[in-house]
Design a protein that fits this description.
- By secondary structure, the chain is α/β, with parallel strands linked by helices.
- It has a single domain, classed as Glycosidases (TIM Barrel, Alpha-Beta Barrel), CATH 3.20.20.
- The chain has 14 helices and 14 strands.
- Helix 8 crosses helix 11 and helix 12 packs parallel to helix 13.
- The chain is globular and about 60 Å long.
- It binds 2-(hydroxymethyl)phenyl 6-O-phosphono-beta-D-glucopyranoside.
- 2-(hydroxymethyl)phenyl 6-O-phosphono-beta-D-glucopyranoside (P53) binds next to loops.
């Protein structure tokens, strides 16, 4: 058993990290626009520092990003040259509804994505569309408090109806919310949550998450009604937790760590809050307000497939074990002594991808889709213009081998693989440009300087061969 004949090879991006053109085409302002680089970034992302507009003295990398808004034809041609079967991108909500609560959508925004999807199809590339990748209109945050407000379900429903109607026949693969579990770690991203002094933040986060879950189920329902061809996936920031040791206390922590991650996609995939989650909420003293009908909506509209990002596995230990924490990303984790780390301290664990795939497939028995994976690294442009990113090739090769083993040896059903940041883009975690993931280099630096010229890295040719052989040849 090898990869499906129609395996969807490709790459992934998100509107706020590549489009730029933040004030073009009648676009409205979004949370993602006003997240600066530097020390305050983390505070803004986690909702501890309110920043709902541009402020003096800060650099906002999403404003221009890599200007894909004007370069998309050139970029998609390069994806086509690599042989992409799919391209994962996200819709900028405020291009379609600049404020989020208008009656009518913005035609210029709709036309932009229509042209972009048509451009993809010219090269036989099937778009894979994330409806929201961390973005939320600023107006909806100011007026309604973002996803803490139940009204958000209506605004989201309106958005998806417009998208499914307009792009029928052009798009059939949809993801409702990027990394839905990130709401618990980075609540300003996506959910647009900013906290008031002294309020119960857990209560707000879980209530907002409930609204997203209902919105996601409604979107799934509407997608299927509008076009039975539509397939909708949930999207998890994945990476299984390992116990630090075989001490049962560490093992128990890893069970809890995994459940903390699965919690929301358990609802999206199985149609109900799992018993452990209800107990956990009770334990935390969180009471989620639900409306009559919510549980039916969740039950009747589960997702068609499970998509996820994978960068690293995680480690859990008993709180009294005194083990070292690692820098890592926004997820708190413990250093795994068996693993090396990237330049940004992310632990590198290809076998962990196989483990994560097996965990997810055992749990849900639905097709999986790896929609993010890759290495953020500093690239050097040589005098002759070449970029020899052998480190990226070896990272990806090891992960693709592990993915292949999961499919061929373990029988996991996998729809496709889109590597993260197939073209260099702005980092979500840090706002940097120099943390590069791409097969395509973009001449732009952390301060926003550069020509924006695109060039092929060594990994470009490598990935092209991988795709041409449907993953048979990884060398
Ligand atoms: P960067 C961490 C922090 C923020 C977003 O991350 C994250 C993660 C990893 O779990 O999730 C995804 O750019 C996200 C992308 C993001 C990518 O990880 O901090 O969906 O938007 O760019 C990589 O290196």
């Amino acid at each position: 058993m090898s990869f499906r004949k129609d395996f969807l090879w490709g790459g992934a991006t998100a509107a706020n990290q590549c489009e730029g053109g933040y004030n073009e085409g009648q676009r409205g302002l979004a949370n993602v626009d006003v997240i600066p680089t530097g020390a305050d970034r983390r505070k803004v992302i986690t909702g501890q520092r309110k920043m709902l507009d541009f402020e003096d003295g800060y650099f906002y990398p999403a404003k221009e990003a890599i200007d894909m808004y004007h370069h998309y034809k050139e970029d998609i041609a390069l994806f086509g040259e690599m042989g992409f079967k799919t391209y994962r991108l996200s819709i900028g909500w405020t291009r379609i509804f600049p404020n989020g609560d208008e009656e009518q959508p913005n035609e210029e925004g709709l036309k932009f994505y229509e042209d972009l999807f048509k451009e993809c199809h010219k090269y036989g590339i099937e778009p894979l569309v994330t409806i929201t990748h961390f973005d939320c209109p600023i107006h909806l945050i100011k007026e309604y408090g973002g996803w803490r407000n139940r009204k958000m379900i209506d605004f989201y429903e309106k958005l998806v109806r417009v998208l499914f109607d307009r792009y029928k026949g052009l798009v059939k693969y949809w993801l409702t919310f990027n990394e839905i579990n990130m709401i618990l770690h980075a609540p300003f991203l996506g959910a647009g949550l900013v906290f008031e002094e002294g309020e119960n933040q857990e209560q707000v986060k879980y209530q907002a998450a409930h609204h997203e879950l209902v919105a996601s189920a409604l979107a799934t329902k509407i997608a299927h009604e509008v076009d039975p061809e539509n397939q909708v996936g949930c999207m998890l920031a994945a990476g299984s937790y390992y116990p630090y040791s075989c001490n049962p206390k560490d093992v128990w922590e890893s069970v809890k760590g995994n459940r903390g991650n699965y919690f929301l996609i358990d609802v999206q995939s199985r149609g109900a809050y799992p018993p452990y989650a209800l107990k956990e909420l009770e334990h935390k003293g969180v009471v989620i307000e639900m409306e009559a009908g919510d549980s039916d909506i969740l039950k009747d509209n589960t997702v068609d497939f499970i998509s996820f990002s994978y960068y690293a596995s995680r480690v859990a230990a008993d709180e009294n074990s005194g083990v070292e924490k690692t820098a890592g990303n926004l997820f708190p984790t413990i250093k795994n002594p068996y693993l090396e780390t990237s330049e940004w301290g992310w632990q590198i664990d290809p076998l962990g991808l196989r483990i994560t795939m097996n965990d997810l497939f055992d749990r849900y028995q639905k097709p999986l889709f790896i929609v993010e994976n890759g290495l953020g690294a500093v690239d050097e442009v040589m005098d002759d213009g070449t970029i020899n990113d052998d480190y990226r090739i070896s990272y990806l090769k090891a992960h693709l081998q592990a993915m292949k083993n999961a499919v061929e040896e373990d029988g996991v059903d996998l729809m496709g693989y889109t590597s993260w940041g197939c073209i260099d883009l702005v980092s979500a975690g840090t706002g940097e440009m120099k943390k590069r993931y791409g097969f395509i280099y973009v001449d732009r630096d952390n301060e926003g300087k550069g020509t924006l010229k695109r060039s092929r890295k060594k990994s470009f040719e490598w990935y092209k061969q991988v795709i041409a052989s449907n993953g048979e040849n990884l060398d």
